[in-house]
Amino acid sequence: MRQTTGIIHSEKGFYIGDICYVLNEDVYDKVWGGADYKDGKYDVPGTGQQFIVAATAWGDGFYEDSEHHEYPVDAGNIGLVPLELVERPYSQHGRVIEEPGDATYTAEDGVFIITLPSGKTVSIDTNDENFEEAINGLQINNG
């Protein structure tokens, strides 16, 4: 069992999704990459901001939350990033919640539970058995 938990604060709101789409290269490669891209909560030097991230159960793909929003994943993770750290366009990727305050993030074995400042919960289950069956059922034609 692997679990990552934490509270992230923002004065603007939050991005939920694969963090590769929104963090600048210095933060992505130096802060998270400097920790070998491990699950966890990270401080971004000089900003007073933090983000939190954990791996999905099955790596890359498309995952759906409890409200049927899709999350494309290209770096095998889903994170919670305060909008203050978002530096890349995100309109096609993840989800933006413009709600300031504290959000709680819990990831355990590919299941993500994010409680927003309003108390609303977003859950994303990337450990879906149907996804595993679909991957195991794929056949590659090298012909």
What is the fold's blueprint, element by element?
Elements lengths: L2 E8 L3 E4 L7 H8 L7 E5 L4 E7 L5 E4 L5 E4 L3 E6 L12 E3 L3 E8 L2 E5 L5 E5 L3 H9 L6
Antiparallel strand pairs: 1-9, 2-7, 2-8, 3-4, 4-7, 5-6, 9-10, 10-11
Word description of this protein:
The chain is mainly β and 143 residues long. The chain has one domain (3-137). It has 2 helices and 11 strands; from the N terminus they run E-E-H-E-E-E-E-E-E-E-E-E-H. The protein has helices spanning 25-32, 129-137; strands at residues 3-10, 14-17, 40-44, 49-55, 61-64, 70-73, 77-82, 95-97, 101-108, 111-115, 121-125. It has a 5-stranded antiparallel beta sheet with strand order 3-4-7-2-8, with helices on one face. Strand 5 (61-64) and strand 6 form a beta hairpin. The protein is globular.
